[in-house]
Write a structure and sequence with these properties.
With about 120 residues, this protein is mostly helical. It has helices at about 1-45, 55-80, 85-90, 95-100, 105-110. The chain has one domain. Keywords: Signal.
Length: about 120
């Protein structure tokens, strides 16, 4: 009986630890997303609405924002992989890059033919 109770207590502790790790992952993702959104809005607002192409500095700045987001999202996913639901455990950096490439921000700047190396 003691062994059964010990197993039940251990399972409860493990479940609580996994839930805490998942909550931490969600908070980290929200923080990364908030920072990215803020930086991207600031960058996009800084552009002259009449421009037809990014200059070299604007392209570097834009790509740096996007690359930092991709890197941070992958890092936090990788660090928390063991505690994530199965559908998130297999997320690759390429999955994150693909999601970013189809984001509204990328669609806005698509007309500027910006190519960022996000790998």
């Amino acid at each position: 009986m003691k062994k059964i109770m010990t197993v039940i207590v251990l399972l409860g502790c493990i479940q609580n630890a996994v839930a805490a790790a998942t909550d931490r992952y969600v908070r980290d993702v929200e923080k990364i997303s908030t920072q990215y959104t803020s930086q991207m809005k600031s960058f996009l607002r800084s552009l002259d609405p009449q421009i037809t192409a990014f200059n070299a500095q604007q392209q570097v700045q834009y790509c740096a924002i996007v690359k930092q987001y991709v890197d941070d999202m992958y890092k936090t996913t990788d660090e928390n992989r063991a505690n994530l639901p199965p559908s998130y455990m297999s997320i690759t950096k390429q999955d994150i890059i693909s999601k970013v490439n189809t984001s509204p921000e990328m669609q806005i700047v698509k007309k500027y033919n910006i190519q960022c190396d996000l790998k």
